[in-house]
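User: I'm putting together a teaching handout on how sequence relates to shape, and I'd like one worked example. Could you take Major facilitator superfamily (MFS) profile domain-containing protein from Oreochromis aureus, show the sequence you're using, and then write out its predicted structure as tokens right after it?

Assistant: Happy to. First the sequence, then the structure tokens directly below it.
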Amino acid sequence: MPPAAVTNLGYTPPDGGWGWAVVFGAFISIGFSYAFPKSLTIYFKEIQEYFSVSYSEIAWVSSVMLASMYAGGPVSSVLVNRYGSRRVVIVGGVMVCTGMALASLGTNIIHLYLCVGVIGGFGLAFNLQPSLTIIGTYFQVKRPLANGLAMTGSPVILSTLAPLNQFLFDSFGWRGSFLILGSIVLNCCVAGALMRPVNKSIQRKTIDESSKCENEAEEHAAAEDTSTHSDNLQTEDQSESKGHSFVQKFIDVSLFRHRGFLIYLIGNVVMFFGFFAPVVFMAPYAKHQGIDEYSAAFLLSIFALADMFVRPTTGFVGNTKWIRPRIQYFFSFAVSYNGICHLMCPLASGYTGLVVYAVFFGLAFGMLSALLFEVLMDLVGAPRFSTAVGLVTIIECGPVLLGPPMAGALVDYFGDYKYMYYACGVFMLVSGIFFFIMHYYNYKKLDEERRKSKAMETRNSDEAVELKMNQDDRTMNETDE
């Protein structure tokens, strides 16, 4: 197994034990966060006809929900740091249930934007971000595998919800279906109850006791240099802390000077313009081609089954000694693969062609989703991940919000879905190529910095040995005299 990434957690994560129960809770919570907006597309054609709205207007329902989920990231980060993941996830489940119940009483499309989009979206944010964060506290060596298993919740739940939603619509209509779905989402509260905080004190005590003797000698040797350095920086630190303490309480602005974080952020902003729209319009596209409702819904299930298979496999492969040290290249490949799938989609003809597209798209989407947050944690480290994911999601909410409506506008303008798939493919492929180039640059710079740091440590060590020898020589000379 590859060595764990270097972190400053201050304790050793258990990498198992109750952590697997936490992964199961995250499996449910993350699953509903990502699958729920996609599964609602089953109702889009009927709601579109009910309210007499365009493709672009109906696409705003999922778009606002996803954007609210991403925009709620920083708020969720603050609440997780203050109250812990368990309470935040439970509150999120209640919010989504409330939003769906209110949406069932909707009289116009704006009502759905507010209830399903805003209230439900913020509830999903309270499910997603805490689940991602708590995995980083329980796992270090096995973290890619744990993240891959947790992210598998999205296709598993989507493969269940897609046909279930069609059955609920046929039996109860979209209003009754929304009420039932709201009660189903309350399972997130059960998932949140499993997210017990990791016991850090016992593990930290064990580490401190085992390294106490070594640390005492090192601390004594470095005491003079440390005190001098502290005196020189004290005034500067105090002035900076006054200016930034309030801001840094909610946002780590130093991340905007982190090279890897900026690469991730820029590439993702471009990528998310084409990330969700192909899923949102998959079922409507099939219905547009004259395919019946159940077969169109089954495409989402096929997509989810392929997605379900590849996510844990991606986590396992990403945890191997060959991939883990350069996992960013694996992520770049997944993004590019998604773009190629969308560019090839218009070539698929008939239901068989759409099934083939759904399989390949499910594999590509699952690979990307399993790595999406793991690579961010790999870049910034687990201690800064909670703040980093909050910053990323609030910035990404722009393309997440605009992507599906822009795709719907293309469908409205051309009267054909193929231009929408071409546009999404270009966005994904461009971001994938950007990731390949910039991660090559980043890895090269990291290797250079690592070599310089190692050379500096060697030089300091040689100087310390030489200084020690000179001191010993002086002591011997003084003794002889």
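A couple of points you could highlight for students: The chain has 21 helices and no strands. The radius of gyration is 26 Å.
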